[in-house]
């Protein structure tokens, strides 16, 4: 039982390290090797204890969910405010405007598509390639109505004011392009995949260390890479 507790503690350390990867965007993933004191006169392990030491698919899924990259981006939304239609547009002209804003996006592995199988101590983990998880998140504090840069109107034109609704629409359209750009960024996607596979391998090797079972680990991608 003491040895089982040691294994559980080791796995807790592994998950703690997974969380730290998400917070630290600028450092490479490192494998944590925790020193746990060897216990003498360990009682014989029961089948239940051995089963608990065997890699579990649900834990592989959880690692993939946690091993994500949070990407910060800065963007410029460009748009044109058309003149009003009908009589309201008399004396107005189309007006171009720009606005800078910031946001974040999450890149990682879709955990719901991850599967794992074990046969003769050979573990095969099947995962999809990394992708953009969810939509980009705009930092609403990074811009306001006063952040707009627009064309100057001539004195003889009727005003064609830029509204908050115009800004929202411009940022929405710009984000569509941002999402495509992130999906096509091979370096970001490869980094997210590398983080996930390193953490999965670390988890399995920690269990192998305390169960005295040597595993061969294979990764298979189940789809084509993004981009």
Number of helical segments? 5
* Helix and strand composition category: alpha+beta
Q: Which term fits the overall shape?
A: rod-shaped
The helix/strand series, from N terminus to C terminus, equals HHHEEEEEEHHE
The unreliable regions are 1-43
Give the amount of beta strand, in percent: 15-25%
Gyration radius (Cα, Å) is 26 Å
The end-to-end distance, rounded to whole angstroms, is 49 Å
Quickly count the domains. Answer: 1
Mean pLDDT score, rounded? Answer: 80
| Helical residue percent band | 25-40%
User: In total, how many beta strands?
Assistant: 7
Q: Give a quick account of the main beta sheet: strands, pairing sense, barrel closure.
A: 4 strands, antiparallel
Characterize the structure shown:
37% of the residues lie in helices and 24% in strands. The longest helix is centred in the last third of the chain and has 26 residues, at 186-211. It has one domain. The protein has helices at 2-23, 47-53, 57-66, 164-183, 186-211, and strands at 69-81, 95-108, 115-119, 122-127, 131-138, 149-150, 216-221. With 227 residues, the chain is α+β, with helices and mostly antiparallel strands. The protein starts with a helix and ends in a 6-residue tail after the last strand. The model is unreliable at 1-43 (pLDDT under 50). The strands form 2 sheets. Strands 1, 2, 5 and 6 form a 4-stranded antiparallel β-sheet that branches.
